[in-house]
Amino acid sequence: MPEHPASDPMLSPPGLPDPVWHPCGDTGLLLDLGGYRPAYHDILCAVEDKSVLTLMARRLAGTINDKRKKGEIRGITDIVPGLASLLIHYDPLIIRAGQLKSAIYPLLSTLEGANSLPARLWHLPVCYAPEFAPDMAEISEQLSLSPEQIIELHLSVTHEVAIMGFLPGLGYMTGLPDPLHLPRRANPRTDVRQGSVGIAMDQTVIYPLDSPGGWNLIGRMPYLLCDPAQPDPIWLAAGDRVKFSAISADEFDAFERASISGSRPDFEMIEGAG
Amino acid sequence: MPEFVSIFSAGPHCSLQDGGRVGHQAFGVPEGGAMDRDALILGNRLVGNPPDAAGLEICLGGLSFSPTIALRIALTGTAGDRLTITRTSGEILDVDAGISVVAEAGDIISTGFFRDTNCAFIAVGSQFDIGAPFGSQSTSANARMGGIDGRLLADGDRIPLGRPAPPAPLRQIQTAIFARKTSFHIVPGPQQSWFEDAAYHQFIESEWRLTSKMSRMGIRLAGPVISHRHTADILSDGIVRGAIQIPGDGQPIVMMNDHQTTGGYTKIASICSADLPAFARLSSASKITFLPVTQTQAEELAIAHQAQIDRIISEMITV
After folding, report:
1. Could you tell me which CATH class the domain B183-310 is placed in?
2. Which among A27, A45, A80 is the nearest to B262, CB-wise?
3. Domains of chain A
4. C-alpha to C-alpha distance for A65 and B46, rounded to whole angstroms
5. Could A80 and B238 be called an inter-chain contact, meaning their C-beta atoms sit closer than 8 Å?
6. Minimal CA separation from A234 to chain B, in Å
């Protein structure tokens, strides 16, 4: 049991459970902001709760990273925000889990009443042409929507990068309109092409590399998401917002050429995004 | 013309590995790095390199290569397997693990297929002159990053050499640390409570067999089906190396160095960092058991393990 339980009713927004620590071997400490509730995950966390917890996890990661940079907490090797949790990787030769909990416990109160932060809004071009959208016909039937309606819905909203994972530069973007929600493919593909835009559940992903994958592919985005040749190889981050715009196959080629020579998509800063 | 190491036969699974890319998992970048950290650190010590320098990680065996300049090399990660050096004169030399030796320009260094380990390491007394995306030369094949073109080594590859290690005597270490283990300490959690007590006890009390489904991303185990209380799905969270994931089919997968940084399946427990090198050396069909400890006990095991590494280094002899 934790030496310093994170549980404190003052720390949780109304209606949300108290955070709880879980061990991950001797090199990780998971702060579960969804609380200790071994229940079915749909019950555990309604969608609106989940987005609050995702935001809390991201903010806490930022606060801890600031402390690390100032040298106020030593021994943390990495911090990975999850959808409702924060994993702190640590080196047990430098710091122990008990000490980490003591150092992080006071930071939890900073989550309360934090003001909305400015965020980056990326404008990402996507080519929805049939040759880039191998699953469009099938999901059009499944969703009883025409490809034009699917594209229009996908373009209609601002998506949010909830967390990163799976491959370098891959963001799980939430915000997909309800009529587009559907499960992942029953038979995952063995070869999804780099840049492919896939949808499933309430999310959109863009594959940074050729990879196996089970998402429903509706288009392709021409910019490299991870370019180790650049000093700052990955530009997408958790918390970023994304608006898609439709482009032609010719425009796709032009953007792709520009990307290979180091060009990146446009973004603007938006206020009050959290 | 820069000096290089020429790969004649890469075998089934050989890659360049160093201490890994630390601190970029929030962007989806896997840590990577040598699966057997003991072999990495001790091997680099034997050839005079910094502890985290890149060397050759060889799964199963079957590697042969030749340098264009004299290099100190050492095989680690095994107590029983050996290197064979074929000199340009035709002389053949067998070298035990845990000893550094000078390979001259044109010598052919080879490993057979291993009998004592599944994964060994050859430290090379020179830095490699290749890129280091996110601060590491490690090959992460699934992330197409590091090494040569982000892929496993292939026959005919030439790996450019950079700065040689400073001159130092040849050395030898005790290799008992590389002996086979069959019991592994684990810390329960983070999702232990997603399993009924009976299922959790079945997990810790059963014997598990390593399947042939093993890669640098994960190693699948086979045994009784561990059923979930409700579901295998969780809200995606971060993953540590050594985490034991139980997906819907109830058969565990141990997350190795190239594991994905976040995932949506329950993790019942994690193998302790002190025991992970020995776990990485296990061959498929090995049978193992788990021994649960607390996180505090696991941290003490890590500290004791580091003390053991330090002792081996302090007892290193000149040969």
Report:
1. mainly beta
2. A80
3. 9-111 (3.30.1360.40), 119-270 (2.40.100.10)
4. 36
5. yes
6. 7
